[in-house]
Design brief:
This protein has one domain. The chain has four helices and eleven strands. It has helices spanning about 10-35, 35-75, 120-130, 150-160, and strands at about 80, 85, 90-95, 100-105, 110-115, 135-140, 140-145, 160-175, 175-185, 195, 200. Strands 4, 5, 6, 7, 8 and 9 form a six-stranded antiparallel beta sheet that branches. A three-stranded antiparallel beta sheet has the order 1-2-3, covered by helices on one side.
């Protein structure tokens, strides 16, 4: 893992490394926070769903990378609209201002992350405000997080606990190796909305 928390490496290593990290953190949370039996099962289910999504994404990524690599070596690829296509239809994004990436399709799930921090509402809102000011996005009043950094998965979901929609959307290819790009949407959560100079709460449940 790099200094910035991104997990990068060979494509056949990065997915198992992600799964190992997820399993490790789930066990550490259970050991340190001592959740209830129901919350422990929710945490384990969250980890199992991430493991499943990562396994499905790995299969897609391997197949597409293999096809694209063969097309480049054989000289049978074609370029169209910022995409490099293999003869079998597999493709990857190629852009001048961004790293190449393989799109992943149909790898998603709903999951529940329990309230492990048990913070007073005011302190929880401060954490959420910090995410809003940095890496969190907003879609129609609903918060979301896009990241290649495994630690952010758990740091953000702890602050935005509840029902989440998770999907793996791409594998980014750099000189340092491949990284997995995941997106998390908060379901049933509302971010802060400004009205007439005032503010409503960061959380709506």
């Amino acid at each position: 893992m790099g200094r910035n928390g991104k997990l990068r490496g060979p494509a056949d290593w990065v997915f198992p490394a992600w799964r190992l990290y997820v399993d490790y953190v789930v066990e550490e949370i259970i050991d340190r926070f001592k959740p209830s039996a129901e919350e422990e099962e929710q945490l384990r289910d969250f980890g199992r769903k991430l493991d499943t999504l990562l396994g499905q994404a790995e299969g897609q990524a391997r197949a597409k990378l293999k096809a694209v690599y063969k097309a480049v070596v054989d000289g049978t690829y074609r370029m169209e609209g910022g995409r490099l296509y293999a003869p079998d239809g597999a493709w990857m994004y190629i852009a001048k201002v961004a790293a190449p990436r393989i799109a992943i399709h149909g790898v998603s799930a709903s999951a529940h992350f329990p309230d492990i921090l048990k913070l007073p509402r005011e302190r929880l809102e401060l954490l959420q405000l910090g995410w809003r000011a940095s890496d969190e996005g907003n879609n129609g009043g609903r918060p979301f997080m896009r990241t290649t950094q495994p630690w952010q998965v758990f740091a953000w979901t702890a602050a935005r606990y509840g029902e989440l929609y998770v999907y793996v959307d791409s594998v980014i290819l750099t000189r340092e190796g491949a990284s997995v790009h995941m997106t998390y949407h908060g379901e049933g959560l509302e971010t802060e909305v400004e009205q007439g100079g005032g503010h409503r709460s960061l959380v709506s449940r």
